[in-house]
Amino acid sequence: MRRPFCKAVATATVGACLVVGSTTPLLAQRKTLEQKVDSVLQLMTLEEKAGQLNQYTGDAVTGPAVNDPTKLEQIRSGRVGSMLNIRGAQRTRELQAEALKSRLKIPLLFGLDVIHGYQTTFPIPLGEAASWDMTAIRQSAHIAAVEAAAAGQHWTFAPMVDIARDPRWGRVMEGAGEDPYLGSQIARARVLGFQGEKIGATDAVLACAKHFAGYGAAQAGRDYHTVDLSRRLLWEVYLPPFKAALDAGAATFMNAFNELDGIPSTGNRYLQRDILKGQWKFQGFVVSDWGSIGEMVNHGFAKDNADAGRLALLAGSDMDMESRSYVNSLPALVKSGQVPEELVNDAVRRILRKKFELGLFQNPNRFSDVAREKKLVGAPEHRQIARDVARKSIVLLKNEGNVLPLDKKTKRIALIGPLGSSKLNHAGFWAVNYDSTGYVSVLEGLQNKFGKQANIQYARGCGIKGESQAGFAEAVKTAQDADVVVMAVGEAYDMSGEAKSRTDIGLPGQQEALIKAVVATGKPVVVLMMAGRPLTFNWTAEHAPAILYTWWLGSEAGNAIADVLTGDYNPAGKLPMTFPRSLGQVPIFYAAKNTGRPSSGDKDVLYKSAYIDQTNRPQYAFGHGLSYTKFTYGNLKLSTTQLGAGQSLTVSCTLTNAGKTAGEEVVQLYLRDLVASVTRPIMELKDFQKVQLKPGETKTLTFTITSDKLSFYNQDMQWTTEPGEFRLMLGSASDDIRLDSKFELLK
Ligand code: BGC
């Protein structure tokens, strides 16, 4: 058995260890967490307090790192409280040993961007969001935590819960899409998955809801750009997933690079002190984003790095990631009276509390377990789950003439496109500890599935980027020799992600031209679109008979895709973001307002809120996703059509699998408040259920509409309901409503 850390060190050590180690177990048990925290805090010098609030990057970098050869020395002298980007049980132990050479021996907290898996890579978060499957999403986050924790991580910088409505913004890949309700459900599932049974369990890590707040609303979809949101939009759309993460117990929050209404989020008191720590009573700590404290100088908000530190601390930012503002300036700021020491103490307390809860004072290496790391990281059972989550994330956009599923007896299959044999790209932008050599490519997935039964020929056709069509002839020939063609096209892993904004969201390079050339052969073509954002591909959408949107699916991509192609898994994914026809429509999202001049259809454009050169309709709507079977909806019943204030309404309907294949449907419930003191969106997702049905089976589904689902922020920004009529819509997508009714909320 591992001996508690404090007993293992010399009895003459000072500080934190004595506080815990010298008390009897019974006494120690009786001590509240607060007493323990205070007992450490009172021993700390101002410099050590500033050190606790300081976080440095380590071996790898996920941002613009500063070359600092003195880091080790700073760790030994108690000037560093946390490190990010240190991977592996052995490496975290080594650095922890350095921290234990410091006067108070306060252990380091290790954080890492474990966004969609540690080594076993799951689909990118936007892809997982398309599963609308909270159990799967929670499980994926949990496995990421199991692996990361075994490898010495205490903390993940996830989930990113930023609402994103602009596909130019590369970080849409990291979130849950455009909708606050779906986003909130997913935020909750991810936090619960990462944090497991409890903070301190060695199969769990601290979660971090980021980026607080509004980061996804960057102007023109350009990363780090200015954000100017109305209070209404902030509260109605951008804050709910953060609140959901908090309610699920998120231990930490990260603030954001962007300014909001003229004030950088990192120095924003309203966000951090008034809302988060005030109104929401958040007990955890806030970490800055990478260098975001120092960047307030560039924003023109702080005059130098020290001033930025002052503003950030006063605004409620507790830990400084890579700005060096706190460690270098806080002691002097306190001594000169510019920052009250009590605020520094509060920030230190918040961090120490987490270190205690994680059990690091008892055993600083309890997460860094080489044997456990060997056993759990990339474990085969994790791969199985990754395959299942990957299948669940795939969206069937189109299936004309039932080209899919492929007949398993197909003899000749052509696989064409630059992503056909690729492994690395399935990692997506945010895989931080992957080994893509172990990933399953589409080619391998098809080979695994069809074995010797089929002759599978692969032709790359063209690169992901670039102008060369030199490979077209071979690709066309390969298609001509096949019974069916599968095309693997899309973005490279580094085309959507942080600082990966694009002004053109079309299929890059010559890929759409390649699709045209292959479709022209007249062979049945199935297009697999792999990307980190909604792409525009109008020609393909119109002419390719079958399209699967597969995002970047992680370790098991090829197997999952083969499962779906052959019908071993019936696709059930639904888009968590609207797919525009052109960039000119952006921002485009389903929960739009009606306007004073709504257009009734594509031809109704004269003096209407419409375009003269394109429809208002997206290419694929929010919630869209097909299945190999057909679902019919019926028997809509409302418990009442006149609802008393404060009462709940029960809605039921039947769902029937009218096809010949078992399948799952995501039944989506939308509401519209028809007349209110503030204009309301034409529809808002308020509930959904993912239902599995055998062929011919019918189930009755029940939804409860509570008064919260009818509420909104009125003109005084009070969360309230108003009497009046509501429209209720149930359907298979936001543009595929199958059942429709109205009810009235009484005074
Ligand atoms: C990103 C954060 C990330 C941090 C650490 C920043 O550039 O915005 O989301 O957690 O780097 O890697």
Automatic annotation (TrEMBL):
Gene3D superfamilies per record: Glycoside hydrolase family 3 C-terminal domain (3.40.50.1700), Glycoside hydrolase, family 3, N-terminal domain (3.20.20.300), Immunoglobulins (2.60.40.10)
GO BP annotations, alphabetical order: glucan catabolic process
SUPFAM superfamilies: (Trans)glycosidases (SSF51445), Beta-D-glucan exohydrolase, C-terminal domain (SSF52279)
Enzyme class, spelled out: hydrolase
GO cellular component terms given for this protein: periplasmic space
Keyword Hydrolase assigned: yes
Domain of life: Bacteria
Principal location listed in the UniProt entry: periplasm
GO terms for MF: beta-glucosidase activity
InterPro entries registered for this protein in UniProt: Cellulose_Degrad_GH3, Fn3-like, GH, Glyco_hydro_3_AS, Glyco_hydro_3_C, Glyco_hydro_3_C_sf, Glyco_hydro_3_N, Glyco_hydro_3_N_sf
Reactions accelerated catalytically: Hydrolysis of terminal, non-reducing beta-D-glucosyl residues with release of beta-D-glucose
Subcellular location: Periplasm
Signal peptide: 1-28
Pfam families: Fn3-like, Glyco_hydro_3, Glyco_hydro_3_C
Domain Fibronectin type III-like: 665-734
PROSITE patterns found in the cross-reference section: GLYCOSYL_HYDROL_F3
Ranges in coiled-coil conformation: none
Keywords attached to this entry: Glycosidase, Hydrolase, Periplasm, Signal
EC assignment: 3.2.1.21
Signal is among the record's keywords: yes
Family that this chain belongs to: Belongs to the glycosyl hydrolase 3 family.
Listed PANTHER family: LYSOSOMAL BETA GLUCOSIDASE, PERIPLASMIC BETA-GLUCOSIDASE-RELATED
UniProt protein name: Periplasmic beta-glucosidase
Source species of the chain: Hymenobacter lutimineralis
Lineage per the UniProt record: Bacteria, Pseudomonadati, Bacteroidota, Cytophagia, Cytophagales
